[in-house]
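thread from #wetlab-drylab

HS: before we spend reagent money on co-crystallization trials with glycine, can we at least see a predicted complex? here's what I'd submit
DV: go for it
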Amino acid sequence: MKILVVGKGGREHALVRALAESPGNHELFCFPGSDAIFQLAKPVAADGLESLIAWMRERAIDLCVAGEESYLVKGEGLANLCRKHGIPCWGPPKESAQLEASKEFAKQFLIRNGIPTARARATDTLVQAVSAIAGEYPTVLKFDGLAAGKGVAVCPDETSALAFLDEVFTQRRFGPGRVLVEQCLTGPEVSVFAAIVDETYLIFTPARDYKRALDGDHGPNTGGMGAVASRQLVSPELLQQIENEIVRPTVAGLNKEGLPYRGFLYFGLMLTPGGPQVIEYNCRFGDPECQAVMPLVKGDLASFCLAGANGELRGDLVSFDDGWSVCVILASAGYPETSRSGDVISGLEQSGDFRVYHAGTRKNADGDWETNGGRVLAIVSGAATRPEAVAKAHAAADLIRFSGLQRRRDIGILNFD
Ligand code: AMP
Ligand code: GLY
């Protein structure tokens, strides 16, 4: 089978590797890809969505796997264009991807379908937002659009709220758009992933990511400094409750509202004292959760995604390890405010019972790997127990060095002991 994966980060490296390890001799391609991904998947000669589709038709691609969200809502939408040209696509069409692209759309969908979520009000101006906050702190402010993970601010006080509102409404940092003023929920977070095929779904291994830059959940928000994944992350009873109150009503809602869906849907949940609530949907796998989850997936992911793209949920093609998987992110100097490129990475030649996924790296003129972005590498290891998986992943992360390297030492530990 000829498979194209769309995206370029650590998540796509993990997806490409899982597809490469699927039975069968598949020919893999990646767009736009990265030097590391190109060791497993060939690059694509395209410079945008239209030319990508033309290229896929020319090469008779059997399956397009959407890794990254942006292409789902660009132009006519990746999945929409694939459908128009008869290319099976694992990823939802533009109208359904609004669940991620518009926080307001997602909120209205949640409310219409009776799915537990925080109260929220949409606002158009700074004055409206301040009035909607009504002096109730902490409050959560969400820009209503794709903002590369920077569009949400949990504000403890008026000063921080005004600073965020100024960025959105005055500086227009994310472009035009409204702000959702949302009730602040408390509790541990968990990321649940479902592979959805029309009316059917399969829940993958749940995960938890670590969003803050520094140990102890201090410092600024990042794209994710690590993740832990295991079936044991939530009890069977809680997972059942999540399925009954959140996953199933979401799938039913999509079908009732005529929103077609074939692909991964990510449920960002807060486990509040009153039960699990949805804080966000993403129309893709999580990053870095994907890097933690993929090593636990056994079976034939490639055929699973192809069958799903063609309208058949083949749960028999995949199974999930019972153990724990821990992913430690190595980030470059300055991250998350900035990032530094060009620092040579050492230790990558070492191998062991761990996996290294590249997020922001490139090969330099000497043939060495160097940093090329904020999040540089994801080091992943697994074991039957969480402490073992933690020890293995952190020991493997110790093998890698580059100038300015930043990482957290409490991934897989904080929020468990
Ligand atoms: P999002 O981009 O919607 O996932 O939000 C980013 C992060 O902001 C989440 O992972 C939470 O840590 C936090 N967050 C979002 N919504 C809320 C909420 N209603 N209450 C408390 N924290 C929230
Ligand atoms: N780990 C958060 C995300 O993928 O959005």
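DV: The mean pLDDT is 96.
HS: ok that's useful, forwarding to the group
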